[in-house]
């Protein structure tokens, strides 16, 4: 659930006294603010003008992905490279893991390679935390099952702050497959901790049980849910879930839950439209709306992703760097 | 309970003096003494040995501790044959002896599955070799636990199967369940059901706010009560004897309470974890707290405790389910379910007594005479009955440390749990198999 609460011996990481970043839940408001402030500084650097810096020169970041992801992996890879780290990408087919080598064996193998940061994505909730208990480096959760995707939560928050100037008091709607979404959970924890009012909108078959206990309001009617919202955050609906198992068809889903201009008109006039990507155009979001740069922050989300990940890599390696001669 | 022949020669006469005699079957709760002769109980009562024990009789001074029929654990998994790296009949027998258990009944979900006579005979032979706790087995309801074809229930019963269950799998097909219940009436045996409608039970923990937070798929309480209510209709239809294993929800208990009122031949058991813990034990993906059915909400935990206190729940079984590290040290969804419970059965079960919610005799009935009755066995301090006994100190406090379990597997979410009640001596057929 929460990040490791054991403070590191070294106080060099300042406002973030945890060894890992496993989730947003359990982080204090000041810790979140610290992460976002640091990320904002990276966001202001022009990568073309500043080029690579050497902050993490000589450090190794391993991207360990048990699930396919081009976007998140690339974003982490770019972030690490811009900080001058050596980056290794490991994609592991989870099916082959199930057959033989266990997650614990994988962790032990990697530990022997002495990485400084391990970025892990895994299809099972809780798997990244389990792995973090067995390795001796910092671990960043790159998404675990339907649990958390903390850097996505941070990059979404940073995007909103840069567009709307704040989080507190905003009304944010998160729409779509809440049940299976780690992005939804990280956003809910972060936004509620920062004083935003969060609404979740989904058909009952994609709404997790007793979701109100996370501090959100739940809606099954999109127009009602969007009423007066400052931000509309759409979620991706996996293809295998739209053909009769959770919703009857793509057509029906788009009709009732796809974001188009008509439904968006129920939100505030200048409401911001977001999507963690990759988008299913015509399934959860109208294609032309997604491309409207006045309304859609989707491109900016990707940019903020790199900045947030640079900040996280920087912060989690600070204890290490201050303890080691550069 | 009775045991197949070929027991070793039993010892002579033993006098248990200075005991608090507790016999749920007869309602006896009084200071007194008990005499065993060979493998049987020869005499017992408050007046016995009032003037001392005659010479030539071995004397065990119970020091005021409780003396009761040995515990009858109606639901354990022994993992032998097939998964001896998790548990064997030998290690489980030692764990049972430490726990005060004198008879236990194994699920048929071993490898191979106990769905034929050879399987029943294998368990009986291994138990004879151990010369320790009495080990019985259930037969599978369906061949290969596949839920389709009935096993040879009559022959399996004749060879000693005490009842029929598909173990951790529910008999999902209503027609198969109907026939199993109907057919079982010929042999007056019992069908034990794992109470989960499988299509609703594909999750990995209780449905609710915690499952939502953890991003784990949930199992609603309705999965349990739907299966129980369906089966109760089939019991009405067939007259078969029906037992619900490890009930975990208030809704199912309410359904069973109603069925008993209507006079249906229905019984049920639960396990200590269902009235001791709730879903919060899952905490941060703690796989030791993963069981099937899952740990439920606090309201359901209270309902289980209430069902015990008002007698709706007939028995407490340990639900002993050994799992090794490899089966538990996995992402939560992939970990195997189960808790080992033989060594903590008595101490955890005594909690409602210490809390003043149940009498000691009532509680002991759930661990002795009532499960024995369901399985048509004998459990009681009755003259001429098997001398299967437990001597225990009901008050003695201790802290559970799974690392110190004798069981081969240590998977229990009770580390550091403070309990009261320690077994001092376990006796099977007049012979001590455990002395603290």
From TrEMBL, chain A:
Transmembrane region(s): none
Coiled coil feature spans: none
Residue numbers binding carbamoyl phosphate: 71-72, 121, 149, 152, 277-278
Entry keyword Metal-binding: no
Entry keyword set: Pyrimidine biosynthesis, Transferase
Record SUPFAM superfamilies: Aspartate/ornithine carbamoyltransferase (SSF53671)
Family: Belongs to the aspartate/ornithine carbamoyltransferase superfamily. ATCase family.
Protein name (record): Aspartate carbamoyltransferase
Organism: Tistlia consotensis USBA 355
From TrEMBL, chain B:
UniProt KW RNA-binding keyword: no
A GO MF term: allantoinase activity
Domain Dihydroorotase catalytic: residue ranges: 66-249
GO terms of biological process kind: purine nucleobase catabolic process; pyrimidine nucleotide biosynthetic process
Keyword set includes Chaperone: no
Annotated Gene Ontology cellular component terms: cytoplasm
InterPro entries: DHOase, DHOase/Allantoinase_Hydrolase, DHOase_cat, Metal-dep_hydrolase_composite, Metal_Hydrolase
Classification via Gene3D superfamilies: Metal-dependent hydrolases, Urease, subunit C, domain 1
Name assigned to this protein: Dihydroorotase
Source organism phylogeny: Bacteria, Pseudomonadati, Pseudomonadota, Alphaproteobacteria, Rhodospirillales
